């Protein structure tokens, strides 16, 4: 007999009739959900109002949970929402529910909500927010909502046992089965909203966090708290996953969750990190359409985005518009602009802005000065840094303290100015300021990168003498430096000495040593050390696996490299597309494109990010091997998974088709490329010209070039055609095209003509070379004298004395030679 846990927290015995009733309701829910396609087709054929169909769809939309049913007054299903299905042993019976209600099994999947809000569909792509109309809706009395104040308490929840267990299960996703899935669902229902947020922030890979967010949102009888949406957006704001952030924003609209300015700020920052400033600024337009008024944080974010996108002028216009509508900038606003000036090396303007801030009622803080100091340290302008430190004290009563010196030391060390950093370190200590291990470690790291290991060791000894005990960062810097100079045994000894000094090495320490071993051809030793990490206190991370994999790759041990990649994925670390591509390139160069394709397919199946470049690498590998059918098969696979080939993919295929003489197929492939709106590159033109002329298809080449040139007009295309024709011995056709390039002659045109003249001489046709030289002279383009002397001699040998005399006389007339 089943027991159902009711909202009144009492247990009741269920009869068969009640259980059957629940099953029938689930079946109705399941069947109704699958009738929408039929209803849509039937309505289009019979003139039924689409709004009624949409209303019906909203009624049964599983994405909105039971809220829709409650609004429509469905009392039966409303009661069902209060119960869990339990088999009496604490095991939930999910097997008997439809897949749409259960959620996808054993996989987070790549799905998002799958629908865009109306506001996104109506977004004007041409509106870049230059008029800043959104500032007109500024509300001076906006305060931070209560829901966002809870995000600051999430850090404490990260240590909760349930959060740690949830993260552990997520890390095991590559080995998931129904048991793990069931356990994850149970834990999900036990977590509080702040703990769900802690899970999202604890996951090392933000893509996995986003997939977990979508997976959890699809689970039956679970709905994300609004706080979770804001936490997810905050996580995505630190990445380039801008489309995922925008979908979360759209999902919030569908869930009727109030979107505060902070949500839009996070999406803007994500677009900015992805390098899409225009899309980031369009979020302001989206804010205006949704009726969300901007606050000062939104304005600061917009200025930050514009500055990061190297559009300082627009950021200054935005500031002026802010002031016009009554938004008073704060020190953060001005600091963003100071950074923008420094990015453009306009230090005078940055200092002018700092000096004018007190008059605007917003005196600068130390960050204002530190920003300028950082850029001056980059250029090693130490004297100006000292002047700026004096101005801090004289103009704004900001005393250069320990933090100031630590900042300067760190910035100088970061940019390789170790000697100057040591000067500031000594100066600070003479003034009685305490420089901690962070400042010392920065200098040690700079010395190690420069290979000055003796000085680095002396500085570490000095740290001991002054009572500043080196930490794991300091030791790791020395280990890295020893590996750079090839003293691997010394690095291994230092790793053991760390324990004696009471400093336990961490993953970064071991990774530094393993990277050094791999760079020096000792990848197998590094692999053994990594394998023994399971019994120690450190765990390899994605960087560790990547270093060992590249070590095997460089040594040509591809089998071992592939094994490392598979273990890496199994441990939950996804190699990025660049790492995948380096391995596949090495395999293809070794003549093993089949294995490269298998590696790419394995990574794709496990959820790794595989891009168009990876597919192009495999296609190029098959083309190099001569297996063109396999290359075309990979091209078809790209379309199946919605990966659109780029111009380099098409260029590779076109060149391979032309190489095997399949010119007609190459023409069709080029037309497909143009039809998709791709712009041919110079490499594309070179490949097309070479292959078409190689197989004497000049007419087809000229027709294709007429279609390609309007997309991207390279002036040297005709030069390339002439040079290829002459190199393949088709001198008459090359001569006929000379007139086209001599309309506005340049040095490149002269080189092309010289190339044609040389080929004419090689082929024993000095008369045609003479004609080319005459055409150059008519366009006031003086040919090479030594080359024309060779032409004249050949003409004389062949009894063409008149032509030889005319050619040399033209040089005399132009005073290039004496009579």
Automatic annotation (TrEMBL):
PROSITE patterns from the UniProt entry: PPR (PS51375)
PPR repeat placement: 295-329, 330-364, 365-399, 401-435, 436-470, 471-505, 541-575, 576-610, 611-645, 646-680, 749-783
InterPro entries xref list: PPR_rpt (IPR002885), TPR-like_helical_dom_sf (IPR011990)
Region of interest called Disordered, as start-end residue ranges on this chain: 104-133
Entries under Pfam families matching the protein: PPR, PPR_1, PPR_2
Listed Acidic residues bias regions: 109-130
Gene3D superfamilies per the UniProt record, alphabetical: Tetratricopeptide repeat domain
Keywords: Repeat
Family recorded in the similarity comment: Belongs to the PPR family. P subfamily.
Protein name (record): Chaperone
């Amino acid at each position: 007999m089943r027991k159902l846990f009711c909202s009144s927290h009492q247990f009741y015995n269920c009869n068969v009739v009640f259980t059957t009733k629940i099953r029938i309701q689930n079946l109705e829910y399941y069947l109704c959900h699958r009738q929408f396609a039929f209803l849509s087709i039937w309505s289009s054929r019979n003139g039924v109002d689409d709004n009624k169909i949409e209303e019906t769809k909203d009624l049964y939309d599983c994405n909105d949970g039971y809220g829709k049913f409650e609004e429509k007054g469905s009392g039966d299903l409303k009661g069902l929402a209060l119960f869990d299905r339990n088999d009496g042993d604490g095991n939930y019976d999910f097997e008997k529910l439809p897949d749409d209600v259960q959620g996808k099994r054993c996989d987070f999947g790549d799905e998002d909500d799958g629908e865009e809000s109306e506001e996104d569909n109506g977004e004007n792509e041409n509106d870049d927010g230059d008029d800043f109309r959104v500032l007109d809706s500024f509300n001076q009395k906006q305060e931070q909502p209560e829901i966002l104040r809870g995000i600051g308490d999430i850090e404490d929840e990260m240590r909760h046992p349930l959060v740690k267990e949830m993260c552990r299960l997520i890390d095991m996703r590559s080995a998931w089965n129904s048991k793990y899935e069931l356990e994850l669902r149970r834990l999900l229902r036990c977590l509080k909203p702040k703990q769900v947020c802690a899970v999202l922030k604890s996951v090392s890979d933000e893509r996995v966090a986003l997939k977990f967010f979508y997976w959890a949102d699809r689970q039956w009888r679970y709905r994300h708290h609004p706080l979770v949406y804001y936490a997810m957006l905050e996580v995505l704001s630190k990445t380039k996953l801008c489309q995922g952030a925008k979908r979360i924003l759209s999902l919030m609209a569908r869930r009727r969750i109030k979107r505060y300015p902070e949500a839009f700020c996070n999406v803007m920052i994500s677009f900015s990190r992805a390098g899409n400033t225009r899309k980031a600024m369009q979020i302001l337009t989206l804010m205006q359409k949704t009726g969300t008024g901007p606050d000062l944080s939104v304005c600061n974010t917009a200025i930050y985005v514009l500055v990061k996108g190297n559009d300082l002028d627009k950021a200054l216009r935005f500031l002026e518009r802010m002031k016009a509508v009554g938004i008073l900038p704060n020190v953060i606003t001005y600091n963003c602009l100071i950074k923008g000036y420094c990015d453009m090396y306009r230090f005078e303007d940055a200092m002018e802005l700092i000096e004018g801030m007190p008059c605007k009622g917003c005196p600068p803080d130390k960050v204002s000065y530190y920003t300028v100091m950082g850029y001056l340290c980059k250029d090693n302008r130490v004297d100006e840094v000292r002047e700026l430190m004096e101005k801090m004290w004289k103009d704004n009563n900001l005393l250069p303290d320990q933090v100031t010196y630590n900042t300067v030391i760190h910035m100088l060390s970061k940019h390789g100015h170790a000697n100057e950093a040591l000067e500031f370190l000594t100066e600070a200590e003479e003034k009685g300021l305490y420089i901690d291990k962070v400042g010392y470690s920065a200098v040690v790291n700079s010395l190690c990168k420069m290979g000055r290991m003796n000085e680095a060791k002396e500085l570490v000894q000095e740290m001991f003498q002054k009572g500043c005990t080196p930490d794991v960062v300091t030791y790791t810097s020395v280990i890295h430096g020893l590996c750079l100079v090839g003293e691997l045994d010394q690095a291994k000894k230092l790793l053991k000495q760390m324990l004696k000094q009471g400093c336990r090495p961490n993953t970064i320490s071991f990774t530094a040593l393993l990277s050094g071993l791999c760079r020096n051809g000792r990848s197998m030793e590094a692999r053994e050390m990594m394998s023994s990490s399971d019994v120690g206190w450190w765990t390899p991370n994605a960087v560790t696996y990547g270093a060992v994999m590249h070590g095997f790759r460089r040594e040509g041990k591809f089998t071992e490299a592939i094994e490392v990649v598979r273990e890496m994925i199994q441990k939950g670390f996804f190699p990025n597309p660049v790492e995948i591509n380096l391995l596949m390139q090495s395999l293809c160069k070794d003549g093993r494109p089949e294995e490269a394709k298998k590696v790419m397919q394995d990574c794709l199946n496990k959820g790794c990010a595989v891009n168009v470049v990876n597919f192009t690498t495999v296609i190029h590998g098959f083309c190099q091997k001569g297996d063109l059918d396999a290359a075309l098969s990979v091209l078809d696979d790209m379309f199946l998974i919605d990966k659109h080939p780029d111009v380099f993919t098409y260029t590779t295929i076109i060149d391979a088709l032309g190489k095997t003489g399949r010119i007609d197929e190459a023409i069709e492939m080029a037309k497909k490329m143009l039809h998709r709106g791709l712009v041919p590159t110079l490499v594309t033109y070179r490949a097309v010209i070479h292959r078409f002329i190689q197989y004497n298809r000049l007419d087809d080449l000229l027709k294709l070039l007429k279609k390609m040139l309007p997309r991207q007009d390279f002036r040297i295309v005709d030069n390339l055609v002439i040079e290829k024709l002459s190199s393949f011995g088709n001198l008459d056709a090359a001569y006929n095209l000379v007139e086209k390039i001599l309309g506005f002659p340049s040095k490149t045109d002269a080189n092309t003509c010289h190339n044609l003249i040389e080929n004419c001489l090689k082929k024993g046709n000095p008369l045609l070379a003479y004609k080319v030289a005459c055409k150059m002279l008519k366009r006031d383009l003086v040919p090479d004298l030594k080359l024309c002397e060779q032409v004249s001699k050949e003409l004389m040998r062949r009894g063409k004395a008149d032509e030889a005399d005319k050619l040399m006389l033209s040089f005399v007339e132009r005073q290039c030679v004496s009579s």
